[in-house]
Specification:
Elements (H helix, E strand, L loop, with lengths): L1 H25 L3 E3 L3 E8 L3 E10 L7 E6 L4 E4 L10 E9 L5 E11 L5 E11 L5
Parallel strand pairs: 2-8
Antiparallel strand pairs: 1-3, 3-6, 4-7, 5-6, 7-8
């Protein structure tokens, strides 16, 4: 009986793995040109922004359902419409260094229907006191 249960569980695992591989091969795939932008030293209170370019390298429309930042100092903007296979899009991210000091790594998570459902991009900076750079 244990052998039979083991075979059933293993067969199910193989089937699910194959289905997942097929889904990811036929589905959307998000590919970023770069995953981070380092601004180096900035003065406290400076606002910086960067546009992260990406392409849907998959075979189905890419739908970005949400983009979330680690804090309120980082604000993302993203396309709300599906990105067709082979088409490109951008995620614009701005960072406000007011009230921040020292090394900052603002991570933004991109949630989508891609084969890898959560991607990350980040803005990196070193915030110095006002009047220094």
């Amino acid at each position: 009986m244990r052998k039979l249960m083991f075979l059933v569980v293993m067969s199910l695992a193989v089937v699910l793995t194959v289905q997942a591989q097929e889904k990811s091969a036929d589905g959307p795939m998000i590919a970023f040109v770069e995953s981070s932008k380092d601004f180096g030293n900035i003065a406290q209170g400076d606002k910086v922004e960067h546009v992260f370019k990406f392409e849907n390298k998959g075979k189905a429309p890419l739908v970005i359902s949400n983009v979330a930042a680690t804090c309120g100092c980082t604000v993302p903007a993203w396309p709300k419409e599906p990105i067709a296979p082979g088409e490109s899009g951008v995620i614009k991210v701005s960072f406000n260094s007011a009230g921040k000091m020292g090394k900052q790594n603002s991570v933004v998570r991109i949630y989508s229907n891609a084969s890898e459902p959560i991607e990350k991009v980040s803005l990196i900076s070193n915030v110095l006191p006002k009047g220094t750079k």
